[in-house]
C-alpha cells in the first residue's frame, strides 16, 4: 500500500455528491467521508408520532453512482440513536426496532463497505466503562461475527502501551483522529506528539482507514492535517527484501508442509530459500567450522540429500517436519571430530490472542481445527504471557559447534 486512506468523519453533510466531487473532500485530497445515513429531522420517537411523518428517512441512492457509494462513503449510525441514554424516553426511542435496524439494513443496500456505530456509554457499569471490555461484551453477544470490527477513536490522552497493544490484537479497521489532538509546530502547522507518532507507526502496519473529525484549528483548513498524515506514512522505514516477501503471508494460517511425506514442487523450495536469515546463519556456521580445521588436515563436507531439503528439516515448533537429530544414521559416516550444524536449537512457546486468526479457525466449526498446528507470520496479535524456553535439543554423538 503506497498511500493511506484518509477521510473526513462528520455529523452532517448538506449535499453529499457536491462534497465528494467539488467540495472539501476533493479539494483537501481526501479519499472519502463517514457521515450519518439518516437526516436528524427524521428522528423517530417511542410514541409513534414520527411514524406519520412524510418523506424518506435518507437521501436517495440515485444521487451518486454505486461506485461512489461503495468506495467513498461509510455510513454512521446516527448519534441520536443512544441505546445507553440515562433518560427513559430517549432510550426507548433508540431501542425502537425501526430506529436501530433501519440504518443498518439500509447500509448494505447502498453498497457501503462498512457502517460505524457509536461506542457504549455506561458510567454505572464499571466493567463496560472500559472500552475494550465493552467491545468484548458486544462481540460476544454477536457470537464473534467476522464482519464486526473496531474503529479506534484517538484521543489527546493515550492509554498505556499495554492497553494499546491489546487493541492492536483486535480487528481494527479504522482510526478516527480529532483535530484537537494535533499540536502546532514552529511553522504553525499541525503535528502530533511523539507518543501519537509512535501509535500511528503501529497503525500503519495494519491496512486500516484514517478519518479526521472536528473543526480545523490550523490555517489551510483540513488539508494540512491530511498532508501531515501522509508525511508520517512516508517516514516509515522502507521494507527490506524479507518484509516484502512476508507481506502476502501476514496473519494467514497455513498448514505445515510435510517434505518427507509429500513430493514438494521446486517452487516450494524456492520459497524456503527466501529465508535469508537461516541461510546466512548456516553460511557463518560452515565458515567457522572450516576455519577450525588444522592446516595439515583435509576438510570433508558431507551434505545429506539436497541442501534445500536438509535445511527444511529444521521445522517449526513441534517438529512438524523433522529435526536434525533424526538423521542419526548419517552420524556413523562422520569422523570423531566431525561437526554438526546446528549444534543446538530451542523452541519457545507463548500464549497469544488474535481475533482475526480465531475467526478464521472458527469458520471450520470443528474442535479439531482449534487443536491443529498452523504456520503463520503473526502481526495482529497480543502476547499475553512470557516466552518460556523449552528444553534445548542437542546432538550427542559428534562434536558440536555454533
UniProtKB/TrEMBL annotation:
User: Cross-referenced InterPro entries, in alphabetical order?
Assistant: Arg_MeTrfase, Arg_MeTrfase_PRMT5, PRMT5, PRMT5_TIM, SAM-dependent_MTases_sf
Record's GO cellular component terms: cytosol; nucleus
| Top-rank taxon, per record | Eukaryota
Q: Name one GO biological process term.
A: methylation
Swiss-Prot/TrEMBL keywords: S-adenosyl-L-methionine
UniProt domain PRMT5 TIM barrel: residue ranges: 31-95, 118-234
GO MF terms here are: protein-arginine N-methyltransferase activity
Specify which residues bind S-adenosyl-L-methionine according to the UniProt entry for this protein: 269, 278-279
Residue ranges annotated as transmembrane are: none
* Annotated PRMT5 arginine-N-methyltransferase domain residues: 242-305, 313-341
Pfam families per record:
PRMT5 (PF05185), PRMT5_TIM (PF17285)
**Site, as annotated: Critical for specifying symmetric addition of methyl groups:** 272
Know the name of this protein?
Uncharacterized protein
Species the sequence originates in: Peronospora destructor
